Amino acid sequence: xxxxxxxxxxxxxxxxxxxxxxxxxxxxxxxxxxxxxxxxxxxxxxxxxxxxxxxxxxxxxxxxxxxxxxxxxxxxxxxxxxxxxxxxxxxxxxxxxxxxxxxxxxxxxxxxxxxxxxxxxxxxxxxxxxxxxxxxxxxxxxxxxxxxxxxxxxxxxxxxxxxxxxxxxxxxxxxxxxxxxxxxxxxxxxxxxxxxxxxxxxxxxxxxxxxxxxxxxxxxxxxxxxxxxxxxxxxxxxxxxxxxxxxxxxxxxxxxxxxxxxxxxxxxxxxxxxxxxxxxxxxxxxxxxxxxxxxxxxxxxxxxxxxxxxxxxxxxxxxxxxxxxxxxxxxxxxxxxxxxxxxxxxxxxxxxxxxxxxxxxxxxxxxxxxxxxxxxxxxxxxxxxxxxxxxxxxxxxxxxxxxxxxxxxxxxxxxxxxxxxxxxxxxxxxxxxxxxxxxxxxxxxxxxxxxxxxxxxxxxxxxxxxxxxxxxxxxxxxxxxxxxxxxxxxxxxxxxxxxxxxxxxxxxxxxxxxxxxxxxxxxxxxxxxxxxxxxxxxxxxxxxxxxxxxxxxxxxxxxxxxxxxxxxxxxxxxxxxxxxxxxxxxxxxxxxxxxxxxxxxxxxxxxxxxxxxxxxxxxxxxxxxxxxxxxxxxxxxxxxxxxxxxxxxxxxxxxxxxxxxxxxxxxxxxxxxxxxxxxxxxxxxxxxxxxxxxxxxxxxxxxxxxxxxxxxxxxxxxxxxxxxxxxxxxxxxxxxxxxxxxxxxxxxxxxxxxxxxxxxxxxxxxxxxxxxxxxxxxxxxxxxxxxxxxxxxxxxxxxxxxxxxxxxxxxxxxx
Amino acid sequence: xxxxxxxxxxxxxxxxxxxxxxxxxxxxxxxxxxxxxxxxxxxxxxxxxxxxxxxxxxxxxxxxxxxxxxxxxxxxxxxxxxxxxxxxxxxxxxxxxxxxxxxxxxxxxxxxxxxxxxxxxxxxxxxxxxxxxxxxxxxxxxxxxxxxxxxxxxxxxxxxxxxxxxxxxxxxxxxxxxxxxxxxxxxxxxxxxxxxx
Amino acid sequence: xxxxxxxxxxxxxxxxxxxxxxxxxxxxxxxxxxxxxxxxxxxxxxxxxxxxxxxxxxxxxxxxxxxxxxxxxxxxxxxxxxxxxxxxxxxxxxxxxxxxxxxxxxxxxxxxxxxxxxxxxxxxxxxxxxxxxxxxxxxxxxxxxxx
Lengths: 815, 197, 147
Fold this sequence. Notes:
The structure holds three protein chains of three kinds. Chain A is mostly helical. Chain A has helices at residues 2-20, 24-55, 60-95, 103-122, 150-179, 189-221, 234-268, 275-289, 305-333, 342-362, 367-373, 377-406, 412-438, 454-484, 532-538, 541-553, 556-578, 616-653, 658-662, 671-681, 683-695, 698-726, 735-764, 771-796, and strands at 408-409, 486-487. Chain A has three domains: 22-294 and 301-322, Cytochrome c oxidase-like, subunit I domain (Cytochrome C Oxidase, Chain A, Up-down Bundle); 340-488; 622-796, Four Helix Bundle (Hemerythrin (Met), subunit A) (Up-down Bundle), CATH 1.20.120. Chain A starts with a helix and ends in a 19-residue tail after the last helix. By secondary structure, chain B is an alpha+beta fold. Chain B folds into two domains: 1-38; 51-196, Cupredoxins -  blue copper proteins (Immunoglobulin-like, Sandwich), CATH 2.60.40.420. Helix content of chain B is 20%, strand content 32%. Chain B has one helix at residues 7-46; strands at 51-53, 56-57, 62-69, 86-91, 95-102, 110-115, 129-135, 152-157, 163-168, 180-186, 193-196. A seven-stranded mixed sheet of chain B has the order 1-11-4-10-9-6-7, with helices on one face. Chain C is of the alpha+beta class. Chain C is built from one helix and ten strands. Chain C has one helix spanning 3-33, and strands spanning 45-52, 55-59, 65-67, 69-73, 77-84, 89-93, 98-102, 108-113, 118-124, 136-142. Chain C has a five-stranded mixed sheet with strand order 3-2-1-5-8, with no helix packed on it. In chain C, strands 4-10-9-6-7 form a five-stranded mixed sheet, with no helix packed on it. The chains are: A mainly alpha, B alpha+beta, C alpha+beta. Chains in contact: A-B, A-C, B-C.
C-alpha cells in the first residue's frame, strides 16, 4: 500500500514538473525521452521495411508508408530532439548560464514536438503517405496516390516542428552570446558546435515551412505551384526543399561532432588537438552548407552547367573543414592514453563511420559518377554511414553523461559489448547498402529488380540484427543501472576534473543531476513554473488542422473554432505574463515569495519602476532588444525568401510558366498605389514614435504609435477591399496567380502581426514605459514595410529587373 | 546488486561478431556470383537473336541447359518465354544436364515430359504424357511443391531418344497456363541450339 | 612541424585532390551532356521517352510506339528525349551508369551511343508511387545493319 502510493506520488510529482518546468536541464531530459521514444517508432518502421525486402510479404503501399515515416521520424523526431535535448542539458552547465535566455519559449519549443510526433505517427491511418521523407512534388500532392489527409497531417507536423526548431535556434544564439561566463575561445567544443547549429536552425527551417505551405495549399486549395499543366514546376519543390535539406543534414551532424570534441579528449586524458580549428571549422561548415550546395541533390534533375558547377565546387569545398576535423580528432590519440570504455569505443566508431561515409560522399559531387549513383542504394549507404555516426555519437554522450544524470554507474563491459555490436552492425548495414548501390540497385524499391541484389539485402538484415542487439544491450544496461546500479561516490565520475578537463563550468554540488533538480544538482527551494507553454505547445496543431478542415472539407464551423481556440490560449498567455502585473489587484498565477518569473519572451525587467520618465537601464534594455528582433526578422526573411525565391525561379527559369506570366495583369495604380503610399509612409510616425520614447517624450510616442497603427489598419482594409472587389482572378488559375495571392497574403499576415505588436505596445504603455516592446514593434514595422517594397515592385509593377533571364529551350550552358 | 560482467564477455562478443560478419560477407559474395551467372545466361536467352548455340561438351556428349523462371514478365515463364515459344534442339542420344532456377517467390519445378498432346491442357502434367525427370520436387509432390526465391537444382538425363518433349512446370495448372518449352531431340542436329520465336 | 602546419597540409592536400578529381569530372560532364562522344558526321536519331506511372513509353522517329522495350543499333548515336506524363521518374540505364530525371514540363536529352550489343536494364530511379519498383524496361542493342 505504502509502496504503491509512493510510486503514484512520484509519478504525480514527475508529471507536475514535466508540464510546468521551464528549466533547461529538465527540458533537455524531456527532449531526450521524446527522441528515444521516436527511435523505437522509427526502428519499427525500419523492421517493416526489412521484412518486406527480405520476404516480399507486406506489399508496396504499406512498405512505402513505412519508408516515409522511417525517414521523417529518424531525422525530425530522433536526431533533432536528441541534439536539442543534449544542448539544453549540457550547454548552460558548460557556459555558466543558469537557464536559457527565454525559458518559457524553451518549454514551448519542446511541447510543440508532442503534437508533431503524434500527428506523424497517426498519418498512415488517415491517408496514404507514399512520398518518401523529402516528399517530392507532384507525387506528394497527388491526391490519387496519396489520398486522404495523411500527407497534410505530416505537413502540419513538420511546419510546427520547424517553428519549434527556429525558436530553439534563436534561444540558443541569445543564450550563448549573452549569458556565457567563459570567453569565446575557452567555450567547450560542443557549445561551438551547437552555436553554429543554432544559426542554421534559424535560417534553414523557414524555407521548409514555405515549401510545406505550398504543398499544403496545392493539396487542399487547388493552388498550382507544382502542376506543369498550369505553369507549375516540380523543380520548385526540389529547390525550396533542398535549400532547407542540405543545411538540415549539417544541423544533424554538427552537434554530434561537438560531442566527440568533448568525449574524445577525456577518453585519452589530454586536451583536444587543434581546438581553434575544430571550433571554427564548425562555423565554416555551417556557412558553406547554406550557399549553393543544395543543388547537389539535383544533379540528375537539372540540366545546367553553371548550377552544376557552383553546387559541385562548394560541396567539394565542405569536405575540407570536415577533413581537418578528422585529422585533429585522430591526432588527439597521439600522446594520449586511451581508456577503453563503452563511450570511447563508440567515439572511435564515430570517427570511422564519418570517415568512410565522407569518402563515399566525395563521389557524388563528381557529377558523372552522380549520374550513376544518384537514386541508388549508394546514396542510401552514404547517408546511413553518416546517420549511424550521429546515433553512435549520441549513444556515447548518453553513456558518458549517465553517471551525472543518475548518480549511478553501469556495467562497463556490457557497455563495451553493446558498443562493439552497434558499431559493427552499423558498418555492415551501410557497407552492404553502398556496395549494392554501386552495382545498380535503385533506392525505394519494395523488392529487388534482379536477384543479384538480394544477397546484399540479406547482408543488411544481418547487420541490422547485430546493431539491434547492440542497442538493446546498451539501453538495457542503462535502464537496469538507473534502478539498480552502483551509486557513484565522487562528483567527478570519470576523474576528468583532476586532469584539468572538467566537464562543466557549473560544477555539480550533488548528483544526480536529474529531473527537477537545479543546474548544480541541488534541490530547488521554490519550483517556479507555468503550464501555459505546455498548453500552447500541445495545442499547436489546431491552426493547421483548422485550415485543413476549412480548405479541404469546407467545414468552416469546425475549422474556425480550432483556430480561434488556439489564438485564445496564446492571447491568455500574453495577458497573463504582460498585463496581469499592470493591474496588481487582479489575482495572478504567481508563486509565493515575490519571485519575479521571466516573461514569455524577455527579461523579468518590466518597464521602469518610474513610469513617468525614462531611465538609462530602460534605454539599455531597448538597445539590447534590437539584436533579438533582428534574429526574428532574419528568420522571417528566410521564410519570405522561400516564397519570393520560388517566384523568381518560376518567372526566370520555368518554361511552362512563361505564357501565364505574359498574360498576368493586376492594376497597380489606384487603390494599391494609394495603400502602398500609406503603408510606406507609416514608417515615419513609427520611427519618430520610437525616437520619442527614447527621448522621454511619452505622450508623443503614444500619439505617433497610434497613427502608425491606424495607417497600417487602413492598408489592411484597403487590401481586403481590393481582393474582394477589384481583383478578378483566382489563385487556383495558374502558378503566377498562386504566387501572387500567397505572397501578398503572407505579407498581409505579417502586417497583422505588426499591428498586434503595436497594439500590445500601446496597451502596455498605459501603465509602464515599454522599452522592449516599442523596439520590437518599430523594428518589425520597418521590416514589414521593406518587404512590401519588394512585393509591390515585383508582383504589382512587374519591374523588369526581377526577370532578366529568358528561359528558352533547355541548353546545357544557358543561363 | 549483480556481479560485474567480466572482460571475457566483451572479448567473446567481439570475436563472435567478427566471425558472423566475415561469414555473412563471404556468403553474400558467393550468392552474388551465383545470381550474376544465372542472370547473364537468362539475358542472352531472352535477347532477340533468333538462334543461339547452347553450351555442350562433345567428349561426353552432354548439353548444358539452364532454365530460369524470372520474376519479371509473364508469371508462368522460362527465361521470360511461355507457351512453347522457346524450342531447344539437341542431338538425339545425347545427355542432358539440366539446371533450373526459380527467382519468383511462387514455387515452381521442372519436368521432362514425353508428351502425347501438342500442348499441355491438363492440370496434372502426367495426364498429358509421361514424366521422365523431375527437378526441384519428387515424383509424388511435383503438383504442389517446388523451388522458390532463387533456389536451384540440377539433374542429369542420359541418352535422350529422338523425339519431341516438353520441359514444363509440374505444379497443378502451371503448364497449361503457359509454363512450358519444347525440346526436340533429332539425329539431324549436330550442335545443340535454342530458338525463340 | 608546428601544430598549424598539419591542418594547413590537410586543407591544401584535400583541395588539390578535389581540384584534380573535379577537373576530370567537369570535363567528362560536358562531354556527356553535350554529346561530345558522338561521331561528328552522323546525325543522332531522336527517340522520345515518356515516363508514366508505371511504364516506359518509347516513341521512335517513325512514330512507332513501344512499351518498356526499346531497340537501338550498336555504334550509332541516339538522343533519348526524356519527359514525364505525371510525376517525377528517372530513367536509369544500369550497365551504362547513366540517368536523368523525367520531369513533367521539361524535356531532357540523354546522349546515348552503345558499342556492345546486348540487353541493358532500365530501372526507374526516382520514387514515383507504389508501382515504382515494377517500372523495369530493357534497352536492346542489336548489331548495326547498314553501315
